[in-house]
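2024-03-11 09:14:02 DEBUG pipeline.ingest accepted 1 chain
2024-03-11 09:14:02 DEBUG pipeline.ingest length=402
2024-03-11 09:14:03 DEBUG pipeline.predict start
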Amino acid sequence: MKLKSTAALIGSIIGASLLAATPAHAQNVKIGLLSGITGPIAAMAPPMIAASQLAVAHVNEQGGIGKGGKLEVVVGDSACNPQNATDAATKAVNIDRAVGIVGPACSGAVLAAANSVAVPAGALLITASGTSPQITSINDKDLVFRTVPSDDYQGRALARTLKGRDITKVAVAFLNNDYGKGLAEAFKAEFESLGGTIAGYSGHEGSKASYRSDLAELAKGGADTLVIFDYGDGTGLTILRQALENNFFKTFIGADGMKSDAVIRELGADNLGTFFTSSPVGEASSSLESFNKAFTAAGQSPDAIFTTTSYDAAFLMALAIEKAGGDNAKLAESLRAVSSAPGEPIMAGEWAKAKKLIAEGKDIDYKGAAGDHEFDKNGDVPGTYAFFKVSGGTYESLGEMK
């Protein structure tokens, strides 16, 4: 028994030595995929997750990571909530040993996961839908990036769009969280700078059954238009329904959080003729066309919100891992390298091409489904937003916002 135990011990030591001698990059690599599976954006989460998983499928079908490794995904529910996001990120990074996080989905969740988990652990984080301006100023050691523009841009672009449509007086209702406040502040600053009037401006909590008194107070300013910065799967839907039921306003404007199928499903397209939203869209390109074709073939709708940015976040994470060659400390600088000019253009789905060029030591420049992600010093990107109306039971673009 003693000889057998000794042999087993020697065998385990040899095995460990062989593993140590084998480049870590040859092994499977895990990334965390955190989304709002439950909570106020639950209806948006499935296509976002599917888009990221499509990117992972493209990687694994075209050679995988490093020398034969596969990219593995650990899915977690950040629930659009700071505590849930912290818990999900902790599990992904500390328990599942994910080298990076794609997500979380909501701004407050991003701030919490980044500050409490990703940055202290040195894990790369790329969010596809965290839009709060506060994300820009995280002391992140260059570890936090996003493939979607800041709400500072969206709020200001939406203000310009409304002014361009001769809407000069509005009331603003915003969810009292990082997402709602960030959008409201950017919108208000731009709208007033253009000569517009904010006739009512009020934050609200997300736990009330009725917002009729809030709406009545907002309506006292005499505006015909109500701008709602909230979630269409949550209290934003309640506010819109109660505003319609009580004829407080004639026209309703939402941002990306309100562009939810739940709004149409619950209120009916016939009742939403004066409801409009803004939302990020992919820039017209061959990369976007490739994504649309692949996502449609996978049984998904490429028109769903944040799908292009979700695909790009996961694909960029994989490119950074490949470029870093197994050195996790180099993930951030590798991300910047694969996403920036100069370099051979890489379109959505072109993993085999990218992998070959990286192996040859050549520069690449990923041109994403959502656009050309040239990250600035804060990990932010420029982007494209469009203005939508409800038509035929879905959202129809009225054109890009400038």
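2024-03-11 09:14:41 DEBUG pipeline.report The chain has two domains: 24-148+285-367, 152-273.
2024-03-11 09:14:41 DEBUG pipeline.predict end
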